[in-house]
Amino acid sequence: MKKYNNEEEVKIHLVIPWLESLGYKKSFMEFEKTIKVNEGRKTKSIFADIIVYTDKKMETPLIVIDTKSPTEILSKEARDQVISYARLLPKIAPIAVLTNGYHSQVFQTLDKSRIKEVPLRKNILKDFVSAVLSKNIQEALRDEATKELFTIDDVSTFKELLKKCHNIIRNNEGYDPIQAFDELSKVLFAKMYEEQFNQSSNRFTTEIFTKTLSELKVNIVQQQFSEIQKINDFKELFPENNVIKLKDRTIKEIVSIFESYDLTLTNFDVKGEAFEYFLGDTFTGGLGEYFTPRNVVEFIVEAISPKIGEKIVDPFCGTGGFLIYAFEKVSEKIRLQEFSDSEKLKWKKVLSNESLFGTDWKARTAQACKMNMIVHGDGNTGVFQHDGFKDIKNKIFENKFDICFTNPPFGATETDEEILNMFELGNGRSTQAREILAIERCIRLVKKGTGIVAMIVPDGILNGDRNSYVREFIQRECTILGIIGLNKETFQGYNASVKTSVIFLKRKENPNEKISEDIFMAVCTNSGYAPTGIQVPGNELPDILYDFRNFLTSKSDKHLFKFSKIVKIESLVSRLDAERYININDNLKIHSTNQVIEIFLNEIDILTRNFKKIETSLNNSFNDNDFSFVKVDKIFKPIKNLIYLHPNQEYMSLGLSGKGNGIFNKGSISSNNIKANKLNQVKTGWFVYSRLFAHNGSFAFVTEEFSGGLLSNEFPTFELIYNNFLKDDLLEYLSFYFVSPQILALINRLTTGSTKESRARFKEEQFLELYAPVPKNEELFNNIVKSIKLINKFKKDLKSLYLKMDELPISFGHSLPFMEF
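The chain above was modelled as a monomer; its predicted structure follows.
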């Protein structure tokens, strides 16, 4: 397949020909359509990439298409955006398409539901929207679209404010991310309190803060925070007599950032999504077991699609991801129903006060969940710090709930005899894995005959011989609706390396021996996350969601996703892991031996020609007068991000190759196997070297792929402070320069004298004393960087070609016969 580099190429070479093949005429298409949107006094212009109309008059739209570059992620935000575009046209377009050329998602604008493909032109009614929707609903859709578009913009602003505050706390106080989260939350809630209860005399300003501190020796924000602890809506969040553990100057700087914003007027979705981003960023750094990746939360909740009025519980709610997203989905349904205003208000109260319940046994996490709920506009009436295995009188008890969503903590063992004896899977045992008890707890919480459980479980329960009794229990108690295997990278960025699956169960009216007949299964090989936790393109969960929803409504076995399948199992104790029944290697294209050799020789030829092209640019000699010698301490400053390691957590460990070959991932390592109690967590754009192996050329800079990984104190890290050139180019240049022969010879001389050569360390003080030749003019600098990039690309291509040689034995081995048992 030809490679496309940007969204314009995707639009011209892929999208337009595709639409024409379906019967849509290019002369009926409008490009870069400007749509003006107003919300209150705010106005913005948006641009729809392609709008397809019914005819040349271009009055009745059929499809709105938003094209992305091939490397862009097709996120929920991008989905909401294109649907909003379709809803905001003078006439609503019934279909919205999101594509990056390699992956496409097609939606019905009216209810945001996914459809398999764009229909043929001849199959669409001329004015579908007017035929099926009342004017009231069309207006409601437009209002919703306007709200979402402004929300997307404002969320990014709010995130930046939170990030700025977080950096102030780190620089002034030296706190780790979790401590910073705790203290910043207190300041933000002090501001929310002030706006809600003291509107006429707002004290959350720099002027009042400075005045009361200098004249009365009173920190007014500390005063506001003490008042919070007496207010019903807030007092449960913070223990009595708690204080904000920040210096006065730190609080003042945060006040100056937020004083011009009114949080009570800020959309709940904006505050909520920004706060959740802040939570995710914080908890990924150390309490990952309490945070479920957003892509997975969205998939699970949308798969069940909670209805208005249903009661939902998460007995191991962590920071509240499932409850929050369920709240968002049901809120949206209430807004779009043709209810009167009083009916909408009634159902909103039911949602906030009677529908959502959660528990978490850790005070910190339960508090974070309550904050999350309040910020999203839900209140926190149903969230408790409590053991998830135990009932709460009149609140959380068995056979009450319509739906249970959860991601229980894995790896812990229950030894409390009282709790063990409460469960069939624990009765008579001295110990039991808590995740096994969690399965029984969740099943018991939902209603007999109708209740749905959607939860994440470790694959060992689904495929291990010793856990066959658990599978038998599940089958006796429930009908299995679906099982989706998640790729191991899904939770690696959250300090968990256990392979997991999502299971969807419907509780039976009475336990029986009937085996679930048709089970939807799928294997997800890309959930949209790299091992570091950063989002990457290619998320397969939306395609799996489409297939599963289709299965639930019509038992259809026509699938969009290549690794979806309807499975029949043989017994109550059969393995239930999707990988057992779906061979993901079936879809692998394996070339013949002759084809592999032909491809290999062709790539050698391309490499040879490319090398000849760059040969001339590598034969330069440079004049010393064209360079300024800048001391390294004027280019870099030392920086660290020390995080405390939590027991039983997995972290990404990094190493540094010699000869300028960069950083590499050493794999996941348990904190139990690390002697230190805290390590340096690196960030994108930092420069790093190895004190022990600097003489071998172990210098590099951190790319996004390795951001969040851990290094020991043998790897000093630095932040770039020299800004004469583009940051990435300068890092590329300096990484290359510091592995040049003349620098390595100097480092060897500076590090001699050790009794053991391998332990000769190159100290930070010595590194900062070095000088680097920096080109005086930009053209020379750019030419050098271009040559460096060409060299690095050639090395990378050569390494890639070497790895491709593995295809030769694979293709030859594939020709041998095989029989599956």
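The chain is about 40% helix and 15% strand.
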